[in-house]
Specification:
Length: 501
C-alpha cells in the first residue's frame, strides 16, 4: 500500500471523529470544539498525576504530602529517610505540633527493631482468658479482603508476622491471604461477614468457627468508620468472586449489601450485653471501632460501663481523616469529627468515670507518621493503627483510584493482571520495615524529650501553635487533663511495659 493511503485513512478517521463530535448531544465542549475538545478530557484524566509529580509542592498534597510519602517509602525500603537543607514547612501555621526536647536527653541507642510494647494488657480489666499484652504499639488498621487485593492482604499479614504487630482483618471475613503468620484482630461490621447465617443475620456458631480457623487474638465490632460513618455499603456482584464469597460467607456473583447499622443491638445496654456474650463464649478480648458523632453515646457508654463493670476491652477511635474505605464526598468531608477532637470526646467521657486506665484506647486517621503518632500517645492513646500508610509501604502511589478497581499498583483491585505486579513476600518485608521504622522514630522523639516511652511525653513535651501565634500544651489545646493521661496507674503500667521490653 502506498504511503499516502495511510494519510488518507488518518484524515478520514479524524473527520469521522469530528463529525461524531458535532452531531452528539452529550458533551457541549465536543459539540462546540470538535477534535480539540478531547484534549480537555485527556488533561482532566491525567490531572492528578500532573499535580502529584509536577505541580504540587512537597507539603501541598492531601491526604499525604510528597514529603510524608517519601518518608514512608524510604523507611519501608530501608533507604535514607533524612531530609537535607532544613525544613520547607511553614513554621508559623496554626495547629502545628512542636516537641520540646530536653537539655538532658536519654543517651541509649535505639534498637533496630525498636520494641515498644503496649502499656496495657488487652482484656485484663474484665479478666478475659485470652488477655494479652500487644507486642507493638503500632498495628495494622482494618482493611478488608475485597477492598484490598489478595496479594496486598497477604503482604500485610506477612509483614505483621515478621514484625510482631497485629493485623486487623477489616470487615470482609478471613481469607487464606490472612494466614501467613501474622496474628489477627477479627473485625466484623453490619454485614456480619465471616459470622453470618444464610439470611445475613449474626450467627454465633459461624463466629466460633471463624475464630477457631485462624490466629485470632481479639474481636472488634465495627460500628462505623471515618471514611463514611453512618453509611452502609454495597459490594457489586461483579466483585463478589468465588474467593471473596467464601471469605464473607455470601453467594458468588450477587450484590452484597451492608446496612447502615447493626441488627443485633440497638442501644448502649444491648451493645454491652453483646460484647460480654462474645467475650464469654470465645474467651477473647472484645472491643468496638467507631467514628465519633453524637457525644451522648460516649457519655452513656462510659457511665454504663462504670455502673456495671462490664463492657468492651478496647475502643478504637476512627477519625474523619480515615480513608481506607471509599464513600460519598459529603460523608468523607462533613460527617464525624476529626481524630483529635474525636479522641478527646471519647477519652474525656471515660476520664469522667475514672475508666481510662481500664480500657485500651486505639486510634486511626493519619496517625502513621512519627509526629502524629507521638502526639496521640502523649494524649493518652495506647495503640496506633495504620491503614493508608501501610498501603503506601507496600506500594500504593496515592493514585486515589481505590473505588474504581483500577489501582495501578495492585493494592486496591481485584484485577489479576494488576495484582501480579505486587510481590507479597517482598512487600511484606517492606511493611515490617515501615512499622519498626515508625516505632524507631517514636523512641527517638521520646529519648530526645528525656523519657523512655512516647506515652510518658506530657504537657512539657508537646506543644501546639494556636492561631494567635502562642504555643500551648497539646493537652490544653485538645482539652485533655494531663492528670488523667499521666495518672499513677498509667505510669505504673508504662513502667511494667518497659520492664517486659
Amino acid at each position: 500500500m502506498a504511503w499516502w493511503w495511510w494519510v488518507v485513512i488518518l484524515v478520514a478517521a479524524l473527520l469521522g471523529v469530528a463529525l461524531y463530535d458535532l452531531l452528539q448531544r452529550r458533551h457541549a465542549i465536543l459539540r462546540n470544539f470538535p477534535l480539540i475538545g478531547h484534549l480537555r478530557y485527556l488533561i482532566e484524566r491525567i490531572g492528578p498525576e500532573l499535580r502529584q509529580y509536577v505541580v504540587a509542592g512537597n507539603d501541598e498534597e492531601k491526604p499525604f504530602s510528597r514529603d510524608e510519602r517519601r518518608w514512608v517509602y524510604a523507611t519501608a525500603k530501608k533507604e535514607n529517610s533524612y531530609f537535607g537543607f532544613g525544613t520547607d514547612d511553614d513554621l508559623t501555621e496554626p495547629n502545628r505540633v512542636v516537641f520540646l526536647h530536653s537539655p538532658f536527653p536519654i543517651l541509649e541507642s535505639v534498637p533496630v527493631s525498636a520494641p515498644i510494647q503496649c502499656t496495657k494488657v488487652l482484656g485484663q480489666w474484665r479478666s478475659r482468658p485470652g488477655a494479652f499484652r500487644p507486642q507493638s504499639v503500632v498495628n495494622l488498621s482494618g482493611m478488608s479482603f475485597g477492598s484490598l487485593s489478595g496479594a496486598a492482604v497477604q503482604a500485610l499479614n506477612r509483614g505483621a508476622a515478621i514484625d510482631g504487630c497485629l493485623h486487623n482483618t477489616g470487615e470482609g471475613g478471613i481469607a487464606e491471604h490472612h494466614l501467613h503468620g501474622g496474628e489477627l484482630i477479627f473485625q466484623f461490621g453490619t454485614g456480619y461477614f465471616g459470622c453470618r447465617d444464610n439470611k445475613g443475620n449474626f450467627c454465633l456458631d459461624t463466629l466460633l468457627e471463624t475464630v477457631a480457623s485462624a490466629p485470632v487474638r481479639a474481636i472488634e465490632i465495627k460500628l462505623s468508620q471515618g471514611a463514611k460513618p453512618g453509611m452502609g455499603g454495597l459490594l457489586p456482584a461483579a466483585k463478589v468472586t468465588a474467593e471473596i464469597a467464601e471469605a464473607r460467607g455470601v453467594p458468588q456473583g450477587i450484590d452484597v449489601a451492608s446496612p447502615g447499622g447493626h441488627s443485633t443491638f440497638s442501644d448502649v445496654v444491648s451493645l454491652v450485653a453483646f460484647v460480654e456474650q462474645l467475650a464469654e463464649l470465645t474467651g477473647l478480648p472484645v472491643g468496638i471501632k467507631s467514628a465519633v458523632g453524637q457525644v451522648d453515646f460516649w457519655t452513656h457508654l462510659a457511665q454504663h460501663m462504670a455502673e456495671t463493670g462490664r463492657g468492651p476491652d478496647f475502643i478504637n477511635i476512627d477519625g474523619a481523616e480515615g480513608g481506607t474505605g471509599a464513600g460519598p464526598l459529603v460523608f468523607s468531608d462533613h460527617v464525624a469529627l476529626p481524630f483529635w477532637e474525636a479522641f478527646a470526646v471519647a477519652y474525656n467521657a471515660f476520664a469522667e468515670v475514672a475508666l481510662t486506665d481500664a480500657v485500651v484506647f486505639m486510634g486511626a486517621g493519619r496517625l502513621g507518621l512519627p509526629a502524629q503518632a507521638a502526639t496521640a500517645m502523649a494524649l493518652g492513646l495506647d495503640m496506633v493503627n495504620v491503614g493508608r500508610e501501610a498501603m503506601l509501604a507496600i506500594g500504593c502511589l496515592q493514585a486515589q483510584k481505590c473505588h474504581t478497581g483500577h489501582c495501578p499498583t495492585g493494592v486496591a483491585t481485584q484485577s489479576q493482571w494488576l495484582q501480579r505486579g505486587l510481590d507479597p513476600t517482598d512487600k511484606g518485608v517492606r511493611l515490617a520495615n515501615y512499622v519498626s521504622g515508625l516505632r524507631r522514630e517514636l523512641l527517638r522523639l521520646s529519648f530526645a524529650c528525656g523519657v523512655k516511652h512516647p506515652a510518658l511525653m506530657g504537657p512539657n513535651n508537646v506543644s501546639v501553635r494556636w492561631i494567635d501565634g502562642r504555643y500551648r500544651s497539646a493537652h490544653e489545646h485538645y482539652g485533655i487533663d494531663p492528670a488523667v493521661t499521666h495518672s499513677e496507674q498509667r505510669l505504673k503500667s508504662i513502667a511494667d511495659a518497659l520492664l517486659v521490653s
